[in-house]
Amino acid sequence: MAELKLFMLVLGCSLEGRHTEQHDVFFGIGHHLRDLIPDMRAFWPEAKDKLHIDGYREVNFVDNHRIRVVEKKETLHQEMQLFFLNLGGYKPDEMEEFHYKILSVQKDIGASIRASKQTTFYKHTSFGEATSHVDDKYGVDVDDVHNVKDILPAHLKEKYTLEITPATDAIADPVHLGYFQLQHL
């Protein structure tokens, strides 16, 4: 059987009463992307049949570390953790808050925030009073950066955990962008 994988997805939908498409980030575990459909629907029930994927990646390598999904048999004592950060920033004369989603392997949330402030996005989307900041998926700032294992669907957190080990052979995970309808996965 195929190895279980951690997936990071950008979900989208056009909700009733909204003027623009809405987006959120979802993490799930499965053998294939289509295995995540029930959890995606449970995550965003208001989206109903308008839910789609705008981008996704398998999360195999982050910051020269291998990320593996393993059965939760006993607590893994590992120094490094996988964090998700949603950076928000502004550009002059553009009525938009731009976002940059990153994964970071660090010892703690503070280290992941410090590392995020070294990104090109953070440095180039600030001016005057419109400074870049760190958002979580709900628009709350820095206090709510997420450890990925904590935001997995509850039934997956009970069964699996993430094993994070140094990797000298790390390669960038491909990011798949486009409009992916759930019924065609």
From TrEMBL:
InterPro entries: DUF1543. Residues 18-69 form the DUF1543 domain. Gene3D superfamilies: 3.10.20.10. Pfam families: DUF1543. This is DUF1543 domain-containing protein.
